[in-house]
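Lab channel / #folding
Pinned by the channel admin:
"Please post every new chain as: sequence first, then the structure tokens as a reply. Keep commentary short and put observations after the output so the thread stays searchable."

First post following the new format, from NK:
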Amino acid sequence: MRGTGTAVRTLTVVRAALGVCGVALGAVGVWQLVALTGPETPRRVAVWLAGAAVVHDALLAPLVLAVGWLVRRLPAAGVVRGGLVVAGCAVLVALPALLRPGEPANPSVLPLDYPRGLLLVLGVTAAVTCLLWLRAVAVGRRRAAQAGRRSARNGRS
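Reply from TO:
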């Protein structure tokens, strides 16, 4: 196949360009962290990032693996796993706003009803996951029935 090498080269160039952009933006972020904040901020950010890595590796990754293992025998388990990952990400994004104690000094900092918003996102995620799961199960049953009819026809002739 002739066009494959060109496509691979194009993807390699695109990936390299995206990598360069990512490194450049990371460098700008580090520069702003060091130059535009107080002397204590970089240390606090480093501690926060280390804590996030520990929480991810010690709690979140094993939890995701365990839940994935538990739902492995369900029909269309991939759809269920996908819905659970989306719901987990939504909870992680909303968690800082949900756990913030008291009222902020500036009411425009947290102006929305975050618990209601999270419940809405989780409800929509559950509904879409259920619809996709029902569709996947129906398609699987239809394919199994067609395969059964084909094998019955082939067995008679």
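NK: The chain is about 80% helix and 0% strand.
TO: also worth noting, The CA atoms of residues 87 and 124 lie 10 Å apart.
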